[in-house]
Structures are given as C-alpha cells and as structure tokens.
Amino acid sequence: METEDAFDNDDIEILEGDITRFMVDGIISIEFSERIQTLAAKSLDQTIVVKLLGHRIGYETLRNKMYELWKPEQPFKLMDIENDYFMVTFHSHLDFLHVLTDDPWLVFGHYRAMDN
C-alpha cells in the first residue's frame, strides 16, 4: 500500500496579477484571480469531509481502517481538520465514486457522516 505522500499535487504557480492586496478601511484585503479560484476549486473536486458520529478516532487508526475498508486503487490524502473531522482527497475519480456510492457506512460500529 502506498501512502498519501506518493501523489502530492504540483504546486500552483502564482503569476503576476493572480493576487491583489489592498486596504479597505484599514484592513488588508486580498483578491485572487479567476484562474487561481478555478485551480483551487478543481483541487477539491474529489474531496470529501468525514466524521465518525459518536466516536473519536486517531488519524493513523482511521487512515488504516479506510484503506482496509475502501481498498482504493490509488492512494488518497487524509487531513485532520480538527474537531474530529477529516478531509479525504482522492487521486482517482473511480475511488472517489466508490466511496460515495458503494463503501460501508459503518466504521468501528459507528456511522460515518460525509459531505463533498
């Protein structure tokens, strides 16, 4: 099994004009170009947020259980985003669809809540 580090996305290249910084009433404001907004949205198009209802679980335990249950064809990224929520980003669209439609909804006997 490969780890999620095996497919780190390429860094987004920031071009001149992609970020505009200015002050509004003494507060710094930042605007991103349409190109950057599109790239950011695309980077999340195969991402889900997962939370186990009624159960706290550690990162490594959850990651190992997900690999065991989902049996993905390609590695995925798992990120702890606090308050027992995790963000899962799939490299494979087929793995993403499998998890959304076919996989078990119970992990360690607790229902899994998911949003994408």
Estimated structural class: alpha+beta
Give me the CATH architecture of the largest domain, please: 2-Layer Sandwich
Strand order across the largest sheet? 4-5-3-7-6
CATH topology of the largest domain: Alpha-Beta Plaits
Low-confidence stretches: 1-7
Overall tally of structural domains: 2
Total number of β-strand segments?
7
CATH H level, superfamily name of the largest domain: RRM (RNA recognition motif) domain
Biggest β-sheet description: 5 strands, antiparallel
CATH class of the largest domain, named: Alpha Beta
Report the C-alpha radius of gyration, rounded. 17 Å
Termini separation = 25 Å
Properties at a glance:
116 residues; 2 domains; alpha+beta; two-stranded antiparallel sheet; Alpha-Beta Plaits; disordered N terminus; 7 strands
